[in-house]
Amino acid sequence: MKKIPVLNSMKKTRDTRFLKNYTLNYTNTEGGEKIYETVSNFDYDNPTQLGESVSGVVIIGCQEDRLLLCREFRMGVNHFVYNMPAGHIDEGETVEECARRELYEETGLELVKIHSILSPSYASPDLSDSSAWVVFAEVNGTLSDHTEADEWIEPCLCTREEAAKLLEMERFSGRAQLAAYFFSKGAF
Asked: What is the pLDDT of residues 69-83, one digit of tens each?
């Protein structure tokens, strides 16, 4: 049986309000010592803590027969991408409270009913331990902007046909692309 890589130690190399950079020292499957870099939203004391905390929520919202998408400018890729409303959970906040707050901040919409909450999943496990609960919900209201100056988000409610066209022409985050694909095919 192939050996599993072993994380030996970690060192914080950068600390900002939302992101912390870590250099990880590990032993690979052949016994060689290697260095790996990762980013987290959390302050850690030791490597066993990596991946244990949940960063926030992602909301897959529908209003009647329309899917809620957010067209966002993302500095990390220097492009507009379609995404789902999402955000960091505040200390002491429940998943439901976070979903309600983030939905309103990014779209102006209200959370009407939660259909299900999936267990946390990682957004990009090769780069970060950032993870989020995925909340499937009914939403209602009028789209409006309540974002901060550092965010550029334009929410939209798409029909199945509009979602299918966007999938052919636009860039998406992985989660939003999957949600839009299955929505366009009538899966929910």
From this structure: 999 999 999 999 999
pLDDT tens string 131-140: 999 999 999 9
Task: Compute φ and ψ for 106, nearest 5 degrees.
Answer: -90, -20
Are 128 and 37 contacting, i.e. CB atoms less than 8 angstroms apart?
Answer: no
The helix/strand/coil state of 116 is: strand
Tokens representing 102 are: 């983030």
**Lookup: tokens for 9:** 């130690």
User: 130: Cβ–Cβ under 8 A, 6 or more apart, which residues?
Assistant: 39, 40, 41, 55, 122, 123, 124
Q: How far apart are CA 63 and CA 156, in angstroms?
A: 11
Cα gap 64→46, rounded to integer Å: 46
Residues 6+ apart with CB under 8 A from 73: 79, 80, 152
List Cα–Cα distances, 2 to 8, 28, 29, 31, in angstroms: 18, 11, 7, 11
Which residue type sits at 73?
F
Return the C-alpha torsion angle 69, 73, 54, 143, nearest 10.
Answer: -40
- This model's pTM is above 0.90: yes
Q: What is the pLDDT of residues 3-28, one digit of tens each?
A: 999 999 999 999 999 899 999 999 99
Quick check: 58 and 35 in contact, CB under 8 A?
Answer: no
